[in-house]
């Protein structure tokens, strides 16, 4: 299985500290040594760095740990191969253009018997179930919103519907973004955290490294972090409910959706309502 | 105006030496300081590195000059902005997926009044004439070859036709690849060179740096280099004829096409014939 990490921030921010902890799981403190990738969104464009080498000792990962790239939305992934060999074509995040924006997607999980009909709008380059799911989701969104690109208020419910159609095929936790919003879906395991003023210190789980967040952030900054497993030991990471989709915009939760079956047990009234 | 560089090789090869000379033109020995990019093809996938900083002093360019990435086809571009601001979205090479392969495209030139109707298959992310041309070319290829991806023997003539349709709009020298073949079109200015056994030494134009090619290549290696201006001073770079498309496969010229008007003056019989 793989691990996911994402940042969504009001102001452009670096992920060098978080990636230092996260990438240690790519072969050092974790077994996810089959490649890694990061996608940095910048306006409509997205800059992707991928490498089939283990994140803990790849020279590209070392470059990314030591050279901060500031972005408002970042997706990261470390891979433990389940479907498809260890190669560049199978490294997440995957990126495709839709409506003049670059979309990035990363998946943690494993889908069985998921072979939807693809009409050719998007075809997988590699052999993963993950890229297949991404291509199918974009194909469905493209058919549904033909004329113009809607914002997250219309995309959120549509993406929740697609996630629920795929989730029965196995484990399906994913991150999706077009740089305007971060869509995070936690079928089985995903955590999130908001950082805002007053900023404290953060201590990595995977490294003996502490960062005083007040030195790197101003009073107006705020950001959301999402991860398969909490990256820091002294912050209040919150678990996603099973099947929950959360939409983050400008470092804040904008909307969430919990499937009806789960809502009954958790918090009625959250379904399809803006947060 | 921008500058182009490409490699097509039988065996995976590094471009650190060539990129050292080429990237010096991105702000040091040349004025192309508005960003740069490289696309390394690996099977069906393509790994793209882009940066809006000048290639001569970008930390990413420095990383790419000192950490060889081996690939059989590489496209590179240094930008001097003519259309579209200096930003990530306007950095070449551009990459899109078609038929499960990633295609990369880089352009040197300037197109006037080129606003073709785009059906939504591919839309520009940035504001350049170049990305618009790339999207339109892929759209046309996609419509023409709906079922399966043809090889270069069918794609070459189709790409030559598209290039000739765009070229009257201004200057249009470009590089295009899907990792199987390198398509290079020289409307006004483009050079190429083949290296094969016995390998000599190469001396960069833009740096006081010499490489003994025999130490980095074996007797069976062969490769083609394409560039807007020759990168080395002691090798036999050949100019493209005006409007010439050359297709390179496995480090060798596989096919070329010269427009009829030019052929009359140059070499009759080369039109639409395998080389």
Structural class of chain A: alpha+beta
Radius of gyration computed on alpha carbons of chain A: 17 Å
CATH architectural arrangement of chain A: 4-Layer Sandwich
How do the helices and strands follow one another from N- to C-terminus of chain A?
A: EHEEHEEEHHEEEEEHEEEEHE
Largest interface: A-B, 30 and 30 residues
Strand arrangement across the biggest beta sheet of chain A:
3-2-4-1-12-9-13
User: How much helicity do the residues of chain A have?
Assistant: 10-25%
End-to-end CA span of chain A: 31 Å
Count of the domains of chain A: 1
In CATH terms, the superfamily of chain A is Aminohydrolase, N-terminal nucleophile (Ntn) domain
- DSSP strand count of chain A: 16
Shape of chain A: globular
Low confidence ranges of chain A: 266-275
Structural key phrases:
disordered C terminus, homodimer, alpha+beta, 6 helices, 20% helix, seven-stranded antiparallel sheet
Summarize the structure in words.
In chain A, 20% of the residues lie in helices and 35% in strands. The first copy, chain A, is an alpha+beta fold and 275 residues long. Chain A has one domain: Aminohydrolase, N-terminal nucleophile (Ntn) domain (Glutamine Phosphoribosylpyrophosphate, subunit 1, domain 1, 4-Layer Sandwich). In chain A, a hairpin with a 6-residue loop joins strand 10 (201-203) and strand 11 (210-212). The longest helix of chain A has 16 residues, at 129-144. Chain A starts with a strand and ends with a strand. Mean pLDDT of chain A is 93; it is low at 266-275. Chain A binds chain B through residues 42-45, 47-50, 59-60, 63, 67, 87-89, 96-97, 99-102, 120-126, 142, 146, and chain B through 42-45, 47-50, 59-60, 63, 67, 87-89, 96-97, 99-102, 120-126, 142, 146.
């Amino acid at each position: 299985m793989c691990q996911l990490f994402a940042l969504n921030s009001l102001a452009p921010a670096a992920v060098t500290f978080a990636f230092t902890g996260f990438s240690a799981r790519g072969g050092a403190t974790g077994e996810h040594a089959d490649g890694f990738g990061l996608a940095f969104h910048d306006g409509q464009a997205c800059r992707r760095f991928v490498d089939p080498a283990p994140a803990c000792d790849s020279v590209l990962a070392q470059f990314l740990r030591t050279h901060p790239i500031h972005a408002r939305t970042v997706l990261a992934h470390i891979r433990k191969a389940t479907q498809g060999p260890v190669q560049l074509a199978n490294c997440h995040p995957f990126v495709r253009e839709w409506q003049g924006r670059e979309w990035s997607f990363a998946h943690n999980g494993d889908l069985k018997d998921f072979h939807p009909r693809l009409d050719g709008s998007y075809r997988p380059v590699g052999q993963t179930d993950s890229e297949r799911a991404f291509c199918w989701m974009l194909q469905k969104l493209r058919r549904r919103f033909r004329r113009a690109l809607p914002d997250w208020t219309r995309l959120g419910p549509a993406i929740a519907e697609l996630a629920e159609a795929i989730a029965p095929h196995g484990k399906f936790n994913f991150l999706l973004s077009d740089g305007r919003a971060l869509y995070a879906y936690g079928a089985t395991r995903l955590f999130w955290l908001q950082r805002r003023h007053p900023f404290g210190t953060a201590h990595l789980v995977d490294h003996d490294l502490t960062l005083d967040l007040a030195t790197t952030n101003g009073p107006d900054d705020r950001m959301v972090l999402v991860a398969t497993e909490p990256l820091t030991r002294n912050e209040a990471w919150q678990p996603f409910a099973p099947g929950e989709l959360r939409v983050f915009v400008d470092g804040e939760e904008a909307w969430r959706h919990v499937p009806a079956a789960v809502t009954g047990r958790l918090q009625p009234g959250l379904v399809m309502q803006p947060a």
